[in-house]
Each structure stands twice: as C-alpha cells, then as structure tokens.
C-alpha cells in the first residue's frame, strides 16, 4: 500500500512538473516565432564543428580557464548523473533495484559517485567565485535566483549520495568504500541506526531529491538557466560565414514601410534565440570598452532587457502568462500566425527603443565584437545594435548631430570632413621619393591601392600611405590609385545605421573597380578591408582584397623587401578590432615587427582576441564621448604600463586614437605612435 501511495504521489508531482516544463518551453518557442523568418544555410559540417568546439569542447568558456574547467565538469557530470537518475527513481518503488549490468554495475556505481562528487565541488567553487571571490562580472544582479541555483544543485548532488548511503542501510548491504566511496562513508557513519530508520531516511532524502529535480525543471525555463537548453541550439543555428557580416536591406521592396528594428518582433527568429540562450555570465560586459569606461551600454544587460521585453510582449500577444502558460495542447498553443504577428505591433507595452533600450546605449557601441568573441553561447550583440540604429536613422530620422554632420559630408564630398573631393590626391605630392600613379595614368597595375578617406585627407594617416607607397616602389610592385574618383568605403555609414548611404557608395565603388578591371585591392584601412572582403561580394564585387600588413609580410618572406637597419624601439603593439576579431589576423603583424632588427615587441595584458578597442569603431571616431572616461585614453594607459618607447598599430583610426591618447597623458614627446608600415620603412635601405 505504501509503495502504491508513493507511486501515485510521484506520478502526480512529476506529471505536473513535466506539464509545466513543456508549456514553458513551448511558450518561449511561440515568442521566438513572433520574429521574422530568416534564411537558414544548412552547412551542416560547419555547424556540427562549431557545436563540437564551443558546446562540447567549451572553447569560449576556456577564455577564463578557471570558469571553463568548472563548467566543463558541470556539463559532463550532469549527463552522467542523468543516466543514474532513472535508476534512483526506480529504487523508490523497487527496494534495492539496480540496472542489470552484472559485474559491470560496480563500475557504473563508481562513475556515478565520482561524477556526483565532482559536480558538488564545481557548484561549491561557483558559489565561491560569485560570493567569496566576488568576481566583478557576476555581481550585476542580486535577485536571489543565482543563490537558488547553487542551493538547488548542492541539494541535488548531496541528496543523491545521502539517499544511496541510507539505501545500503535499508537493504542491509555492507558499506563499499571502493566502488561507492561517498555513499559508503555515509552508510558507515550511520550504520548503527537500524533498518527501519534507514528506510525512513532513504525515502526522506529520495523525496527531497525528487522535489528539487522537479522544482528545477520548472525553474529552468523561467531563468537564465534556460541557456542549458538553448545554448546548443543557438550555437548550431549561429550565422555561418564571416563574423560580424551585416544583413542587407532590400530597398526595392515596395511593401517595406520601415527599415531597421523598431519593435522586438522586427528581429529575425535566429536573433531572438540569442535572447533565451544568454547565460548572464557577464563576460561580454566585462570586456566591453564602453561598459568598462563608464558608458551606459552593457551588452549583457542589453540582451537581458530585450529577453524580458520579448517575454512580456509574447505573453500579451499569445494570451499566455510568461510564468504559467495556458494548456499547450489547446488552441492558444497553435504556432504564431500572421494575425498574431500583426497584433504584436499593437500591444501597449514599453517601446523597444527609448523605454527598454536607451539611445545612449545604442550610440556607445564601437562594434568591436569583443562581446561576441567572449560569449560562450554564441550570442551576437552588434548586429542587433546596428539594426536598432538603422531604425533610428532611416525610419525615424533620429540622428545625433555629430552623425548628421558625418552623413552630410560623406554625401557631399565623400569624406567625413567635407573637404573638397578634388583634394583627395594631393597627398602623393608631398614626398618626392615616391611614385604613385592613378588608374588613368598607367595602362597596367597589379594592385589597386585603396587610400581611403583617412589616408587621403588626414595628415597623420597620409604618412602611412606614403610609407606603404614607398615600400611598394622598393619591392617593384605595380600599383595604382583611383585618385579623385575614389569614394568613401561606406563601412562607417553602415555601422552607424545609414544602410542606404552605404549601398549607394558600395555600388559606386564596385562600378569603379569594374571599370578599371581591379582584380587585387589593397588598403591600409582595416574597416574598408573588412567590408570589401566580406560585405561587398554580396553586391557584386569580385576581387582579391588585402590589408597592407598581409602584403608586407608576403614580400618579406619572398625577399622583395629586407628590413636591415636597426630600429631600437620597445613597441607596445595594439591589435585593430577589424583586423583581429573580424579577420583573425594576429600573427602577421607581430612577425613583421620581429623581422625588424632592434625591435622589442611588448604585449599588453589585453592582446590578440582580448585586445581592447581604441574607441573609434562604429562611427565613434566622428562622435564625441559624453559619458565616462575616453576609451582611447584607457587603452593608451594600458599600453603605457609596459613603459614602451613606441605604440604600434595597423589601422589609421587606431593610430589617431592612440596618438590622441599619448597627448592626453602628455607623453607624446617620449612615446611615439606609428603604423607598422612606417616602422618597416625606417628599417629599409633605399
């Protein structure tokens, strides 16, 4: 009779918990379906590889080695313990039940016990990281949910070992300290309590374990722990292809009334999966240059606020409570149809831009992708920010004055300062030792040198283009420039939200490339390099694209140029975001510097993929920072900690920001700032 009552109560509790779990998960699915459909490229090989390295191998998690090891233990011990959970459940109804594994069961028991114990240790360490060590990135929210997770997981693991210990007493087994070491210790400690007491305590802790399991089952879809289900899904559906590549807007769509994202349901369904995959680990915010210098932007907070907004709006649209949804098998649980999507726009809720996400947050982003590079579940923050900017710029016409001035200058003169476009070619006249021809002045050229607005008009950046031109002359490279026919690349306009201006410039530039049959394009500008290489092809560009450091390294390897003069400098090298995190070029610039006699390369604490942005990306080069500390000053201070004699970069934007940083710190007379190509030129004879 007791067994029957136990079974009925178990079935009632477990059934209701599973029912709620299915409802909650399906509700989130319905909320995601509110988003726009997006194209899915199968590419199964790449997707499986991504899941294997990031979900199964925890590649991103190991950027923080301690945390990575802790999560690796939690991840795999969780699956091991689930295998034993079924056996533990059956033990509650069949005394002394064991899987029919014969002699192998003792090894199964050993594996279960160690997995449970290791999970408990990992949970304790996680608790220490948050509440003892007080890791900064984990201190952002104090709502008790994190504490509940630690308490629940500790109870889950300990109750397994305690239950198994009292089971040994209940069935009269001798404690086995070899194959059941931890439950065996418990059985040994309580061996004198007798069979009856052992039986009672077995069921007490068995039910404690079951109730925590079912409580956790209902808790997971309503908390950040939902990432345990959605992380692998998110990683699998992650966009394939070049990282950071932005979506193309079809301006020929006559039905389109708005551009960009003004409502949560304007995001694609793939973008909305990100929101529920977020683990709230704070890694993104911890590395964000805007957040780290006192701006209101927090990439993690951005995702969480949009997730909560989606849950609230989704519940209103589908008439389902975000916490206790309606019957999943009823009519209200049907997939979201067009009528529901339309009604999503009319629900009276806080506006996405203004109430949920402030404009200050959106305009603080430098698009450096440090947040995305750190995210262990594959979330993409930057494209969402740019989609929101697109709405402000192209739909509302709500543009900061600095951005307005930038757009107007680009439209009128194709450069950010509004300087007469006919002066674009004057830089080549300032050095008599270089030969630079336009495409109209030569019949043949191997490389088209894209000078860019910085190289054409900025006095400091002109020196970089001149140095690169000199090196190409010495290497015997045939090249040409577009001269006054060159336009702005449009990269910055695109990332500031003006997709229309970008596409206009893109089409003009591609027409010029095709007009002069440019097969190879090289530029000193990582931003132009990235957009030419990864985004222009979608609009018709067919050409090889190079950053100047790639060619310098190639020519050194081929012996075309031979750095021989000693350059006695200790150089703190700064990785450009658009060469580094966007294009994974880290070693080439360092190899170039190491090939120069006398150069001592210094590595900042934040280097390579962890390198901090200079503060110029995403249009911030042309906008004033009104909150917190200037990002370029923070980055300069990080470099100056190494006591360098020079700061090295490979980007005209970075060079400008670091130069301004040394001026702000009043060290410009003792610490030079130079592009790699300038340093190479100093080492060449000729």
Characterize the structure shown.
- With 686 residues, the chain is mainly alpha-helical.
- It folds into 4 domains: 63-225; 265-398, Fumarate Reductase Iron-sulfur Protein, Chain B, domain 2; 415-556, 3-Layer(aba) Sandwich (Rossmann fold); 562-682, 3-Layer(aba) Sandwich (Rossmann fold).
- It is built from 27 helices and 8 strands.
- The protein has helices spanning 2-33, 44-56, 65-91, 105-132, 145-171, 181-189, 195-219, 227-236, 269-277, 283-287, 289-292, 299-317, 338-344, 359-362, 370-374, 382-396, 401-413, 452-457, 459-475, 491-495, 499-515, 526-534, 548-558, 587-594, 631-640, 652-664, 676-682, and strands at residues 447-450, 479-480, 520-523, 544-547, 569-573, 599-603, 646-649, 672-675.
- The chain has a 4-stranded parallel β-sheet. A 4-stranded parallel β-sheet has the order 6-5-7-8, sandwiched between helices.
- The longest helix is centred in the first third of the chain and has 32 residues, at 2-33.
- The N and C termini lie far apart (99 Å).
What percentage of the residues does DSSP assign to strands (E)? Answer: under 5%
Number of helices: 27
Percent of residues in helical segments? 40-55%
In total, how many beta strands?
8
Trace the largest sheet across and list its strands. 2-1-3-4
Largest sheet: 4 strands, parallel
First-last Cα distance: 99 Å
- Evaluate the radius of gyration: 30 Å
Poorly predicted spans: 323-336
Which structural class do the helices and strands define? Answer: mainly alpha
The tally of domains stands at 4
- Arithmetic mean pLDDT: 91
The global form is elongated
